């Protein structure tokens, strides 16, 4: 069994990373119970083209590509996002930096010409416009994907274009692993929203491992932020501040819901992790419920009581045994599934009430998914992630983050729709049904939403315990509100 090491992480813009975590063999349990575009603000396309031309002179045509470029990278970036709604834009140019210095050059030109822009690391965002821009400049990190490990310093270096699955594969021979995400194809942008891994309850949000951050500000200036230097406020704001602070119904369902609520309310073992989902697939007028549960225990023998209620459910298939952290991360697929189709996320968060999650999380929410949207959605998922107070405590011990959740167990709830292949827009009936469901799924006051799973219209930051701090810090580092005016992202700043 490997001894867990301390971990360090260094980040730049959207971002150069150093992060470390070694892992123990882990028990993974997966059971499947039975039956169970945003339009950007107006911009001056001529100004954007002028900025692109200047950047081509400075960095060369291979690193700054336009629609007429002979190389394929422009089209790969413009049309290659996982979410179809982020693959319909036509940027004035795509920047493909090879270093942090290149990112500074690009950001200075964007700032100089007041051009709309977007940053794309893994390109997996469901927030339409958060990784693409029509007529502006997209900064893509597809050419910055290296991974290295320094055994002397016990530090892993990840460039910002790397995916978590790639990083885990490269690092496995060294016996170390990054916290990262729960799907292999997710990119490093996940960290700026906090980041959830199967080890979060023991080690905090993924970004709580951050030790140092080299951040490119909107002006193009690069600063190094730590928990103790003059940029300590910026350092903390990065932890949950998303892209605003630099480029840096059946009885089985009822039983599963009750077991999920009992876990969220009562389990305190930080080695245990839970993701449970209520999924409905739509084919013509046929509805097929498929529920799933993914458990993870960072040890060789979990206490039987932790997962007993889940294992007692009737199921179509399960996998129980010892798995590596890398195998666990691959258990739900690569994250490429559904790529090229329209994705819609929404979220809520609930504290515990009378032995189950708060009002709004029952099967009535599942019915809200099914009936109003069955002729305009390929499938829908309502997923619950358990956040333990141990996860919050670890983050506080490491200096805190902008999310600043209360010291208690709570549930993160994600509502995910996937549109049928080829759909470039969301029908009004689907939009209205989604808004109605999100309106009913009111978050428990004081419990923060998880920005990586939210709808673009949700004011996530206002649910953070550190909201006022976040607003002050944003005003300090972007006094002209350039980021809010010229790139899409979370509201509230």
Structural class: alpha+beta
Q: If classified by CATH, what would the architecture of the domain at 28-35 and 249-468 be?
A: 3-Layer(aba) Sandwich
> Which geometry do the CA atoms define?
globular
Describe the biggest sheet? Answer: 7 strands, antiparallel
Largest beta sheet: strand ordering = 14-3-13-12-18-19-15
The number of strands is: 19
GO molecular function: FAD binding; oxidoreductase activity
Family: Belongs to the oxygen-dependent FAD-linked oxidoreductase family.
Organism: Ephemerocybe angulata
InterPro entries: FAD-bd_PCMH, FAD-bd_PCMH-like_sf, FAD-bd_PCMH_sub2, FAD-linked_Oxidoreductase, Oxid_FAD_bind_N
Report on the architecture of this protein.
The chain is an alpha+beta fold and 493 residues long. The chain has a domain at 28-35 and 249-468: Vanillyl-alcohol Oxidase, Chain A, domain 3. Helix content is 27%, strand content 22%. The protein is built from 14 helices and 19 strands. It has helices at residues 45-59, 73-79, 100-113, 164-171, 200-203, 232-238, 251-266, 304-311, 325-329, 363-373, 389-397, 428-440, 467-477, 482-486, and strands spanning 10-12, 17-18, 26-33, 64-65, 93-95, 117-120, 137-140, 147-150, 155-158, 212-216, 222-226, 272-283, 286-297, 315-323, 343-350, 352-353, 356-357, 379-387, 410-418. The strands form five sheets. It has a seven-stranded antiparallel sheet with strand order 14-3-13-12-18-19-15. The chain has a four-stranded mixed sheet with strand order 4-5-7-6, sandwiched between helices. Strands 1-10-11 form a three-stranded mixed sheet. A hairpin with a 2-residue loop joins strand 12 (272-283) and strand 13 (286-297). Helix 7 runs antiparallel to helix 8 (304-311) and helix 10 runs antiparallel to helix 12 (428-440). 53% of the residues are buried. Mean pLDDT is 78; it is low at 1-43 and 353-373. Residues 1-31 form the signal peptide. Belongs to the oxygen-dependent FAD-linked oxidoreductase family. It comes from Ephemerocybe angulata.
């Amino acid at each position: 069994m490997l001894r867990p090491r301390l971990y360090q992480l260094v980040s730049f813009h959207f971002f150069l990373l150093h992060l470390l975590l070694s892992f123990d063999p882990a028990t993974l349990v997966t059971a499947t119970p039975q039956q169970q575009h945003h339009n950007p603000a107006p911009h001056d396309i001529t100004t954007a083209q002028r900025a692109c031309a200047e950047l081509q002179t400075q960095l060369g045509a291979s690193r700054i590509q336009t629609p007429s470029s002979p190389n394929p990278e422009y089209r790969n970036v413009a049309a290659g996002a996982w979410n179809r709604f982020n693959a319909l834009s036509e940027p004035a140019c795509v920047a493909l930096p090879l270093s942090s210095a290149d990112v500074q050059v690009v950001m200075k030109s964007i700032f100089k010409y007041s051009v709309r822009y977007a940053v794309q690391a893994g390109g997996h965002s469901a927030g339409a416009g958060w990784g693409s821009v029509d007529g502006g400049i997209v900064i893509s990190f597809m050419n910055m994907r290296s991974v290295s490990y320094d055994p002397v310093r016990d530090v892993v270096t990840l460039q910002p274009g790397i995916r978590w699955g790639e990083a885990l594969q490269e690092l496995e021979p060294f016996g170390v692993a990054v916290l990262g995400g729960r799907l292999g194809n997710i990119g490093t942008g996940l960290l700026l929203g906090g980041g959830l891994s199967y080890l979060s309850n023991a080690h905090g949000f993924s970004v709580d491992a951050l030790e140092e951050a080299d951040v490119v500000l909107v002006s193009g200036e690069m600063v190094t932020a730590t928990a103790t230097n003059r940029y300590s406020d910026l350092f903390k704001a990065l932890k949950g501040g998303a892209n605003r602070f630099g480029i840096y119904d059946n009885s089985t369902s009822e039983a599963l819901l009750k077991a999920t609520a009992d876990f969220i309310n009562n389990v305190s073992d930080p080695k245990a992790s839970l993701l449970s989902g209520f999924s409905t697939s739509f084919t013509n007028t046929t509805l097929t419920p498929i529920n799933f549960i993914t458990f993870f225990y960072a040890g060789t023998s979990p206490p039987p009581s932790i997962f007993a209620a889940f294992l007692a459910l009737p199921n179509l298939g399960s996998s129980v045994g010892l798995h590596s952290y890398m195998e666990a991360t691959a258990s739900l697929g690569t994250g490429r599934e559904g790529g090229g189709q329209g994705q819609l996320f929404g979220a809520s968060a609930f504290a515990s009430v009378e032995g189950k999650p708060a009002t709004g999380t029952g099967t009535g929410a599942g019915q809200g998914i099914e009936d109003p949207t069955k002729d305009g959605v390929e499938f829908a998922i309502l997923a619950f992630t358990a956040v333990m107070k141990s996860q919050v405590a670890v983050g506080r011990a490491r200096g805190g983050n902008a999310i600043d959740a209360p010291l208690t167990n709570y549930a993160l709830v994600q509502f995910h729709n996937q549109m049928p292949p080829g759909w470039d827009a969301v029908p009004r009936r689907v939009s209205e049904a989604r808004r109605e469901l999100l309106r009913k799924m009111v978050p428990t006051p004081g419990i923060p939403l998880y920005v990586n799973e939210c709808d673009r219209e949700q004011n996530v930051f206002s649910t953070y315990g550190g909201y006022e701090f976040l607003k002050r810090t944003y005003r300090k580092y972007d006094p002209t509100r350039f980021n809010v005016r010229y790139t899409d992202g979370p509201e509230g700043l």
